[in-house]
Amino acid sequence: MPNTSKAEAAGPGWSALVDPEETTWSSSPYVTRLVDCGLEWDAIVVAPLRRGLAALTQLGLPVAHGYAVLADYVRQELIVHVRAGTAHQCTAPGTRSLTTGSCLLMPTDQRGSLSATWLSPPHPTRRLVDPGELSDALRQIDQTGAA
Q: How many CB atoms lie within 10 A of CB 31?
């Protein structure tokens, strides 16, 4: 189990990202685009956003380490990229899998929009969250009410 004090010492945690930054969002339709899932990665959508962020904290994943994680602040959902073909391994309630045949709204730049914002832009080597571990963390969050 991760040492919470180490995670806190590394900087702001996932829970600090529950609200969008006070910034002017672009109204341009070109800050996001639809991307096919299932080719390079699948995605797991977690509702609500706060619960998903609590699960990432539970996993001890540092925000700044380049895990591909998005927020949809409009729908209050967290979107986590996982290895292609593995999203079905996340069976926790309140999640849905985006795999082959699904599309995801993605930022075209570092900012994006309120509907698709990078919380942790992907690292060039594509660090991905383990779907089974995410599922276990979500179940633990649900049992303890820690979200």
A: 17
